């Protein structure tokens, strides 16, 4: 069976309801953030805290989970005392180690019960760590994945700690699994169901010396790319992702910052802007945005919406603008192989049948006084 092209109405892109490429040069409406209940893991610091500060200003309800309790509580106190926060705005912090299933369940339960709408509109899987072992002097207390180490050379090394995988992958899988359960419980007419995954430039490029981190972030991209194929069809959940380049947050080890000295980094405000666009624009589904250093670009002459990076000195040429955000992995589902097409086709048919069964049951209830779906 030949896989259809994207212009075909039976194409996989339309089957999974992936939205068109995100045009970051266009404004977006932040008013949709008001009243949204958003759960953020790793929200005490860095991106999560910056999202929380920004979204609180627009009236979102926030449930922040983190292991850094002091910083998390301070952030919540700051947001609650901000003049833009209203008294009925929920802003709360709860200890949550994302590697603990029980902690994450407790966080989701708190979010659902404390939310003024008793539902969760959006989840940000933000918690993450990097490897901090010293490659020059690996030791039992400072292990480095790439350098198996043992003081006694006759015995094999101890198992690698894999802490980064536990936080960045197991933790994100736990968050995702709970989001897939809790978000569909949101049946409010204007409710959203949004899962925002935070990968990294290390999810699309190798980051030597950060093998575990690179592995975990590639895995998050695998999670995103597979899940966007089914999450909307089965549960009306929009799944999007961010893959930022280096940004100066407490995540970056001093050695990493030193290596980046003088080089362009991405800006926190651009990450916040890209994340806010995905959060606020409920029409965006199945899209991943890479946030990098701002580059000078001009529109491509081909007229197909592409841009060309402007090199060299002499800023300010006609039509030139600055761009920090780029779409990645946008074309996965435009041409797929037979298994993917057939699987998603069957899933779509099943959803259609389920919809008809529900409709007929409701109709039966109305006509003959039995119970509908309720
Ligand atoms: N800063 C960057 O350059 C950069 C680039 C790309 C992607 N990222 C990703 O963005 C996310 C946020 O990173 P950041 O830069 O804001 O770093 P950050 O260190 O400021 O924030 C990460 C947060 O996660 C929390 N955390 C760590 N382990 C946890 C656990 N077990 N359970 C719950 N919370 C835990 C930390 O306490 C911290 O508050 C991470 O997933 C990171 O990998 C960061």
Record the SSE blueprint:
Layout lengths: L11 H4 L21 E5 L4 H12 L3 E6 L2 H12 L10 E5 L5 H14 L7 E4 L37 H20 L11 E5 L12 H17 L3 H5 L2 E5 L11 H6 L8 H13 L7 E12 L7 E3 L11 E8 L9 H31 L6
Parallel strand pairs: 1-2, 1-4, 2-3, 4-5, 5-6, 6-7
Antiparallel strand pairs: 7-8, 7-9
Helix pairs in contact: 2-9, 4-5, 5-6
Nicotinamide-adenine-dinucleotide binds next to helix 2 and helix 5.
Task: Describe the structure in your own words.
The chain is of the alpha/beta class. It has a single domain (17-332), classed as Rossmann fold. 36% of the residues lie in helices and 14% in strands. It has 10 helices and 9 strands. It has helices at residues 12-15, 46-57, 69-80, 101-114, 163-182, 211-227, 231-235, 254-259, 268-280, 338-368, and strands at residues 37-41, 61-66, 91-95, 122-125, 194-198, 238-242, 288-299, 307-309, 321-328. Strands 1, 2, 3, 4, 5, 6, 7, 8 and 9 form a 9-stranded mixed sheet that branches. It is globular. Bound molecules: nicotinamide-adenine-dinucleotide (NAD). Nicotinamide-adenine-dinucleotide (NAD) is lined by residues 41-42, 44-48, 66-68, 96-99, 126-129, 167, 171, 198, 200, 244, 246-247, 249-252.
Supply database-style keywords.
nine-stranded mixed sheet; alpha/beta
Number of helices: 10
Extract low-pLDDT stretches. Answer: none
Profile the largest sheet: 9 strands, mixed
Could you say what the CATH architecture is? Answer: 3-Layer(aba) Sandwich
The arrangement of helices and strands along the chain is HEHEHEHEHEHHEHHEEEH
Task: Decide which structural class fits the backbone.
Answer: alpha/beta
Which percent band covers the strand fraction?
5-15%
- What would the average pLDDT be, to the nearest integer? 90
Domain count, please report it: 1
Compute the separation of the termini in Å.
41 Å
CATH superfamily: NAD(P)-binding Rossmann-like Domain
User: What is the radius of gyration?
Assistant: 23 Å
- The shape is globular
Quickly name the level 1 CATH class. Answer: Alpha Beta
GO molecular function: oxidoreductase activity
Pfam family, one: adh_short
Protein name: Ketoreductase domain-containing protein
InterPro entries: KR_dom, NAD(P)-bd_dom_sf, Sc_DH/Rdtase_CS, SDR_fam
């Amino acid at each position: 069976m030949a896989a259809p092209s994207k212009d075909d109405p039976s194409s996989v892109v339309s089957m999974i309801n992936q939205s068109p490429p995100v045009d970051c040069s266009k404004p977006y409406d932040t008013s949709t953030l008001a009243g949204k209940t958003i759960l953020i893991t790793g929200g005490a610091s860095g991106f999560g805290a910056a999202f929380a500060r920004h979204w609180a200003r627009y009236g979102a309800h926030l449930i922040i989970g983190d292991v850094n309790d002091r910083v998390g509580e301070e952030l919540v106190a700051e947001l609650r005392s901000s003049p833009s926060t209203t008294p009925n705005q929920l802003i709360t912090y709860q200890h949550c180690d994302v590697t603990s299933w029980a902690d994450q369940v407790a966080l989701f339960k708190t979010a659902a019960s404390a939310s003024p709408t008793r539902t969760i509109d959006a989840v940000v899987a933000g918690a993450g760590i990097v490897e901090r072992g010293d490659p020059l002097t690996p030791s039992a207390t400072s292990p480095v994945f790439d350098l198996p180490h043992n003081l006694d050379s006759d015995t094999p090394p101890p198992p690698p700690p894999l802490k980064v995988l536990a936080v960045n992958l197991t933790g994100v899988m736990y968050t995702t699994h709970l989001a897939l359960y809790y978000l569909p419980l949101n049946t409010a007419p204007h409710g959203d169901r949004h899962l925002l995954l935070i990968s990294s430039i290390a999810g699309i490029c190798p980051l030597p010396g950060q093998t575990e981190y690179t592995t975990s972030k590639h895995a998050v991209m695998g999670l995103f790319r597979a899940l966007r194929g089914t999450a909307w069809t089965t549960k009306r959940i929009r799944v999007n992702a961010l893959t930022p380049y280096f940004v100066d947050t407490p995540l970056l080890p001093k050695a990493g910052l030193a290596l980046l000295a003088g080089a362009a980094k991405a800006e926190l405000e651009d990450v916040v802007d890209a994340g806010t666009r995905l959060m606020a624009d409920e029409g965006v589904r199945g899209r991943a945005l890479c946030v990098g250093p701002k580059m000078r670009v001009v529109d491509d002459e081909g007229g197909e919406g592409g841009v060309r990076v402007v090199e060299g000195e002499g800023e300010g040429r006609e039509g030139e603008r600055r761009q920090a955000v780029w779409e990645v992995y946008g074309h996965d589902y435009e041409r797929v192989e037979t298994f993917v097409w057939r699987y998603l086709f069957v899933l779509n048919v099943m959803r259609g049948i389920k919809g008809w069964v529900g409709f007929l049951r409701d109709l039966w209830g109305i006509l003959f006084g039995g119970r509908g779906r309720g």
